[in-house]
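Please check this one:

***
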Amino acid sequence: LPVQSAITQPRPGAAVPAGELTVKGYAWSGGGREVVRVDVSLDGGRSWRVARLAGERPVPGRAWAWRLWELQAPVR
């Protein structure tokens, strides 16, 4: 499977103030493949930022769980 991801913070439709925004979520893949990168767009796909993966790296070929990720980005 290709990497799948979900955003858990902020919630859909939430109003966010201008300034620094923290976006959090989780990602997973199939076949024991490790999630090595999560890209996040805050402008409908015009630009992308690389999120920070949280937690320990899984053993290669044994990455059966999801990975938490986080991104801090400025918003207008």
